[in-house]
Design brief:
- β1 and β2 form a beta hairpin.
- The chain is elongated and about 85 Å long.
- It is about 60% helix and about 5% strand.
- α2 runs antiparallel to α4 and α11 runs antiparallel to α12.
- With about 475 residues, the chain is mainly α.
- The protein has two domains: about 170 residues, no CATH class; about 260 residues, no CATH class.
- The strands form two sheets. A two-stranded antiparallel sheet has the order 1-2. The chain has a two-stranded antiparallel ribbon with strand order 3-4.
């Protein structure tokens, strides 16, 4: 595909790549930390470059740790009011720049701070706050009653920035992402970005940036889903602190319960491991026969009718027939999984496959999602190919209104949740609570069960803390 309706790149010519490079807007946290040595008597003892780094580091920390509304408030307090914000150093660093009469340092620092916020909110889909930031930058410029001469200087420099081409480009960028965010396909940018990350027409830097942003979006969704699920039994303000990242509302809890119940006595990760262990040193023909049983495990006739099973069996039987007599290997595994993913999603890297249309339009979203999950658990290298196929599906329909694509959107939501339930860093469990107190049971299809979700890293950390010190017996 020549064009992707993905998150716009700030490093394109349209948004002044030369300006961004000169201002070093994409500075990393490590680079900021290494360059900031904060002495005592701050305003007197630091250099202008140190002052700039302190301010940028402050906003980089804030955008990672605080809610966007709080970050916007602190941006206003610092640059528009020169008030003491979350720490003393940022205010004094700005005072240093103003009292040194260094307009150039201020403009560069101001732009870098802006794009630190823009880049992070852009990557995490918090696009509405970019619009608020753009409006905030130009606010209160006609205030003639600045509380100090220093604030008057800062207000004057900010007025110069608002009158510059840099600010006009920022406005264009904000308008563009606002327009794009209205398209339903933008909810699934993690897939579109993966597709971009393997596009050979893109530069290495563009592909790396796309891959990084895609990973950040997926991790954010997984974390938000885990937090929402963990607090699903709470009420009031406690529950409000964990937003639901899906668009299917509380139905996501029933969906997660169904995913966990369908796996039977084995979770799908263990099932994939068992399959691979039992399939060692067998011919590719026998491997494909076992693969079919693996895909159909835990699926009944209501999930997949006999005609569809036979259709899928015939397709698998014909795959790479010339390799039937030799033992399968990882390369054959990858190719087989990729072909099956295509058969279940797209053909010709563009159009939806007939089997995809059949399953999704007949309400078999979860059945299809589980089969795709099984394939990527069996061959994790196929995950990228799956996401590229999904991107092709999204591109195929993205010009249509959301009302006409609701069937596809529903499937994408189900698949996103299914893959997240089996993410590497999250663990979900379904526990029978029939003997527990009534007030802690979850309100799902059956209130005898409760979903537990936990970040695996936190579980390991807690386990290490509980481990006794000293020699083991």
């Amino acid at each position: 595909m020549e064009s992707l309706n993905t998150l716009p790149q700030l490093t394109t010519e349209q948004y002044s790549i030369s300006t961004l490079k000169k201002s070093q807007l994409f500075i990393s946290y490590e680079e900021l930390s290494e360059s900031c040595a904060i002495p005592s008597n701050l305003a007197q003892n630091i250099s202008l470059s140190q002052a700039s780094e302190i301010i940028c580091k402050f906003f980089l920390e804030q955008v990672k740790q605080s809610l966007p509304q709080i970050v916007l408030q602190r941006f206003k307090q610092l640059f528009l009011e020169l008030a003491q914000v979350a720490n003393y150093e940022a205010q004094q660093a700005l005072v240093k720049i103003a009292t040194s009469d260094s307009k150039e340092t201020f403009i560069n620092t101001f732009k870098r701070s802006i794009y630190i916020l823009v880049n992070n909110w852009h990557a995490t889909r918090k696009l509405q706050y970019i619009q608020e930031l753009v409006q905030l930058i130009a606010s209160n410029l006609d205030n003639q009653e600045a509380s100090s001469s220093t604030l008057q200087i800062l207000q004057s420099w900010r007025s110069n920035f608002v009158a510059s081409q840099d600010y006009q480009e920022l406005i264009k960028f904000a308008l563009k992402i606002n327009h794009q965010s209205n398209n339903w396909s933008q909810r699934y940018n993690s897939y579109l970005l993966v597709y971009q990350s393997v596009d050979q027409k893109k530069s290495v830097k563009q592909k790396t940036t796309a891959k990084t942003r895609s990973l950040a979006l997926k991790k954010q969704f997984e974390l938000q889903l885990a937090m929402y699920t963990a607090r699903s039994t709470l009420t009031g303000k406690q529950q409000d602190n964990s937003p639901n990242p899906t668009i299917i509302g509380k139905k996501v809890l029933s969906l997660i319960q169904k995913i966990l119940q369908k796996r039977g006595s084995f979770n799908y990760t263990n099932l994939a491991r068992i399959f691979l262990n039992q399939a060692q040193e067998i011919s590719y023909e026998d491997f494909k026969h076992n693969l079919l049983n693996y895909l159909f495990y835990s699926l009944d006739d209501q999930d997949l009718d006999q005609a569809t099973k036979e259709q899928l069996a015939q397709y698998i039987e014909k795959l790479y027939e010339s390799y039937h007599e030799q033992n399968w290997d990882n390369q054959l595994l990858l190719r087989t999984c990729n072909r099956l993913i295509e058969y279940l999603t797209t053909i010709n890297q563009a159009n939806p496959s007939p089997l995809f249309i059949l399953l999704v339009t007949h309400g078999k979203n979860l059945t299809l999602a589980i089969m795709l999950l099984k394939l990527v658990l069996l061959c994790p290298q196929s995950r990228t190919h799956l996401e590229c196929c999904l991107a092709q599906l999204i591109e195929h329909y993205q010009s249509q209104p959301a009302s006409d694509c609701q069937w596809l959107i529903n499937f994408l939501e189900v698949l996103q949740v299914t893959l997240s339930v089996y993410a590497e860093n999250v663990q979900y469990n379904l526990v029978n609570m029939s003997q527990a107190q009534q007030e802690i049971s979850v309100n799902l299809d059956s209130n005898a069960y409760r979903i537990f979700s936990q970040m695996k890293g936190r579980a390991k950390k807690a386990s290490r803390k509980l481990k006794p010190k000293g020699r083991s017996l």
